[in-house]
Predict the 3D structure of the following.
Amino acid sequence: MRAYYTVPGGSLEARDIAVPAPGPGQLLVRIRAAGLNRGEFLGKIAAAKPAGTDAAGEVDKVGEGVTAFKPGDRVMARCPGGFAEYALMDARETMAVPQRLSWEEAAAAPIVFLVVYDMLVAQGRLKPGEWLLVTGITSGVGVAALQTAKALGANVIGTSGSADKLEKLKASGLDVALATRRPDFADAVMKATDGKGANLCVNNVGGTVFAEILRCLAFEGRLAIVGYLDGVLKAEIDLDAVHAKRLAIFGVSNKLRNAEQRARTVRGFSADVLPLLADGRIRPLVDRVYPFDQLPAAKARMDANQHLGKIVVTL
């Protein structure tokens, strides 16, 4: 079968490899579409590895012990090696694709919306009427955070270097758009929130805006660290602000989590957010769809920050 590998240097290489066989608790899935995720390509790549992190498709075979799915079922999941004609999914992390979602929309959902569930609901405890600040809101995670927060009844402030992209997000419910890439938005956030500050912030950008975000947070505010678009992994911390305002700072990553911990997030997401996708209150925003053999071009679009929402490849 055809598959892509990420090779040292961060580029993609097409290869012909054998179709894998599902082991206990696994599904072999014929991939119909797969989403691009920037995090997959960050950091040093020491050796070639299968590319892709989430996908959607039809179950082809089930491994020993799998009872929740059968051949022919439409599924989506976190899926290492998803840029391939066939890939393996862990049944514990696999979800049925809601009927109203296309393959492209389904492929755009698993990683970003599971991350968003983790940081807005499981850890962030976002409540109706609260204010959410999202830096780099035009990214895939940023757009999913906006859509989910609005469905939960929250108000959303977003920053981006592109005024045009921010304008387009107003149709998705963006309440306050701040066109900037600089750490200069605290005054605007405080003004929008009547001087109280944001209850929760999603930091997609990284270290360059960390100190500014602390100035934006309300009493008992929460800060989710999820991305480093600026490549800066260190920042100054105002300990007095953290202390006096009783702030909570937490990370959102699956890097060190085991399969059961990831599955627990999937179960929570399936109960709390998947119904919003099923009934149309949330619709994944697909920026552009590329054919499978144009995956390198799709990655180039992502690397150039030209997208709004998620880029998807189809097979």
Remarks:
- The first helix runs from residue 103 to 107.
- The mean pLDDT is 96.
